[in-house]
Design goal:
- Helix 6 links the parallel strand 8 and strand 9.
- The longest helix has 21 residues.
- The chain has 431 residues and is of the alpha/beta class.
- Strands 4, 14, 15, 16, 17, 18, 19, 20 and 21 form a 9-stranded mixed sheet that branches.
- Helix 8 runs parallel beside helix 9.
- It folds into 2 domains: 153 residues, Lyase, Ornithine Decarboxylase, Chain A, domain 1; 259 residues, TIM Barrel, CATH 3.20.20.10.
- The chain binds pyridoxal-5'-phosphate.
- Pyridoxal-5'-phosphate (PLP) binds next to helix 10.
């Protein structure tokens, strides 16, 4: 199985975290997102451990909640000692409602609105990562109006060209995020931020992209950032105490994927930090990491009911399910590959190759193509694996499909953490 928390029971049913997926589909309906709490907690602990062991605990792991945001995930990650990375007023609101301490929240975004910034300043968010000069100036005015000193970091593009899909490549110069290093923009931003009375610049941030398997681009980004911090010390006597190294590494979506364990990747990055600081005689900064996908991605799956099967001779076989791009737009967006398993035939070999089609009115509404699958029939339960990240959080109401329920399983028991939307919810704001 793709992840160690998936098993097949004596009935030949797929189980996640000890819970039978066929029972879950019957009890909660489909489509259904299922998240394995134990695996999420183990991932949180894995991150906490590596910071403790390799870096003397001089850092913080902030769960990148855009991967999957709801109250319960903030409670679970907070109880494991993590902070949270939020990217909008909505995520910030959810985190605060769930009891995530404001000082453990890092607020990101390249187009934060004034009302979002006012909300963050008013609630005492620990760090605001500024993306551009107009934002810095607006934040200064907002902080002054509230008579507060706000801790800020600056998002820098370190110019790293990591080998991943273009859409999730954010560290190179042609990116909408952050200040470029090469052009002097980043230095100008540092000096500007230092000049604002109500802003306290604690350090720099970079995020080179998502779903990256290579370790070296992460380590190189850390070196580039530290060398830049060193030049600021030499030219202007500025020593910044914090460095935020962004998101975590890629995860296993299909059998062929072979990512390194995230602990090894973070260890290598921290070694690069140690070595570079040593070479430059630069004080080791407090570090932050913001993993999302590697905490929740592999811990989730989505259950669907097979509605129909269309065999087009010499072309392809479509298996049509009761969800689609409205609950998982990632194949439609970036041809992200997934693995599917027939939950009620999980013990059978995969003898077919299918295209998984959704229920939305788009030909591109597919969950995958060329997917090996057991021979399925209508009413079978299908599981699409590793959907814990960027699925529920990217869900839409296209075709006015209500958002599915999310359950969390622990020790074989499931509980609802987000209720299934009803038609009444869909029209709630209609006049
Ligand atoms: C998306 C993002 C993350 C999380 O990335 P993962 O690949 O899910 O770990 C962290 N930080 C920033 C700024 C991001 O944009």
């Amino acid at each position: 199985m793709l992840t160690p928390n998936l098993t097949v029971n004596a009935k030949g049913h797929l189980c996640i975290g000890g819970a039978d997926c066929v029972d879950l589909a019957r009890d909660y309906g489909t489509p259904l997102y299922v998240m394995d709490e134990q695996m999420i907690r183990e991932n949180c602990r894995g991150y906490q451990d590596v910071i403790a062991k390799e870096y003397g605990g001089n850092g913080m792991i902030c769960y990148a909640s855009k991967a999957f945001s709801c109250k319960e995930i903030y409670r679970v990650t907070e109880s494991e000692g993590l902070g949270a990375d939020v990217v909008s007023g909505g995520e910030l609101y959810t985190a605060l409602e769930a009891g995530m301490p404001a000082e453990k929240i890092v607020f990101h975004g390249n187009s934060k609105t004034n009302s979002e910034l006012e909300f963050a300043v008013r609630t005492g968010v620990g760090r605001i990562v500024c993306d551009n000069l107009p934002e810095l100036s607006r934040l200064q005015s907002i902080a002054a109006a509230q008579n507060k000193i706000v801790t800020v970091m600056l998002r820098v593009k370190p110019g790293i060209d990591a080998h991943t899909h273009d859409f999730v490549q954010t560290g190179k110069i042609d990116s909408k995020f952050g200040f470029a290093l090469e052009t002097g923009e980043a230095k100008e931003a540092v000096l500007t931020a230092m000049g604002y009375q109500n802003l306290k610049l604690s350090g720099l941030h970079c995020h080179i992209g998502s779903q990256i398997f290579d370790t070296e681009p992460f380590a190189e980004a850390a070196r580039v950032m530290l060398r830049f911090m060193d030049t600021l010390r030499e030219s202007d006597g500025i020593v910044l105490p914090e460095l935020n190294l962004g998101g975590g590494p890629g995860i296993k979506y299909v059998e062929q994927d072979d990512p390194k364990p995230f602990g090894d990747v973070i260890r290598t990055i921290l070694n690069a930090v140690h070595e570079t600081c040593d070479t430059l005689s630069y004080p080791e900064p407090y570090v932050l990491f913001e993993p999302g996908r590697s905490i929740v991605g592999g811990a989730g799956l989505t259950l669907y009911t097979v509605m129909a099967k269309k065999i087009i001779p010499n072309v392809r076989t479509y298996v049509l399910v009761d969800g689609g791009m409205c609950d998982n737009p990632r194949y439609a967006l970036y041809q992200s590959e997934y693995e599917a398993v027939c939950a009620n035939r999980a013990g059978e070999p995969k003898t077919e190759t299918v295209t998984l089609g959704g229920k939305c009115c788009e030909s591109g509404d597919l969950l995958g193509e060329n997917m090996p699958l057991q021979s399925v029939e209508p009413d079978d339960i299908l599981a699409v694996l590793a959907t814990g990240a960027y699925n529920y959080s990217m869900a839409s109401h296209y075709n006015r499909n209500p958002n599915p329920e999310v359950v969390m399983v622990k020790d074989g028991e499931a509980r609802t953490v987000i209720r299934r939307e009803r038609y009444e919810d869909i029209v709630r704001n209609d006049i």
